[in-house]
TrEMBL record:
This is FUSC family protein. The keyword Transmembrane applies. Its main location: membrane. The chain crosses the membrane at residues 92-112, 118-135, 142-159, 165-183, 211-229, 265-294, 300-322, 334-354.
Amino acid sequence: MHAPHALDLVRTRRASLRRLLTPARLRESFAVARPPSLRNAAVAGMQTSLAVLIAVAATHQSPWAHMEGFPALGALAALFGRFAPAGRRMSVVLLSGLLLVASVGVLSLASIAGATPATMLICLALLAGALTWFTNHWGLGGPGAVIFVFAACAAVGPVDAWRTVVERVLFTAAGAAVAWCICRATDRLRSDAPMAAAPGSERPLLHQWNAAGRIALCAASAALLALAAGWPHPAWAAIGATAVLQGSHLHITMHRAVQRTVGTVIGAALAWGILANQPTFWPLLAAVIVLQFITELVIGFNYVFGLICVTPMALLMTSLAAPSASAGMPMARVLDTVLGALVGIAFALVFSTLDDRAHLAAHHENARAG
């Protein structure tokens, strides 16, 4: 059997693009599904919200109040393993906490080493690829590598002393430790729903490496394009690209892109309304806690619902870490998200395999027949 001609492959990709852009595929992005376990989602939301509250409030009352954004990042370890068996949950939370600490530490080290903005973004992209591999290989499940990339983005800013690097790592680790303790104390509240497999964890090792490499290249492209455009937060484009490419199939990637764009636009408007009132620390923290809990309740129904809450929550957490950067963040988030989504779709299509495109064609035909 002869290898497919290059022109035939291009035509196949063009056909795949047409299928992705059909109204039916776009409507699928807004379908409401039944979450695997609303109880487990509520427990994970409660655990994460409580961990963020304790870790951030304690830091705010300490002499290191300027570090209060980093324990919030470490506390996000409680998001992982909500469907893990009882004996596996704590190891998932521990590994997730270690990856959050490593994400902050690696980018902080690159910064103090004198990396240029472009080099920092390349380091972030390479880290995104590595984090994707670890997340899939260790079967950490949702919400996936995008949380670790988000944590790494918080460390992209300049570092002026080794003490700052150490403080960032220690406070992120402290937040992760709080999350582990809270999950350990309350894990009995979860139901025994089976663990959802992480996207890509069932694939051969070579496929996992290919997926990690694709995400690294895509994240670098999106972030460097944002940097070239002069946008203030180019690292956020890497988050969008990573999130989109976590989809296991081409139509899921398109759904992610559409859902992330729509949810971010609405969520950014909500964040703008909150930040326009220039809230003080405690109302800001309360808003983060409420949004975190609601996110976990609704994201299982549709990713759009989750992003409507995740976007303002992420921007408010960024505001906690850097209050002076609040102005203009909502619009920057929208631009970076749209860019990341577009670059992610392009990479997913260009680097798709014949099996990927065949799966899309079969899904398209089955949906038409149904």
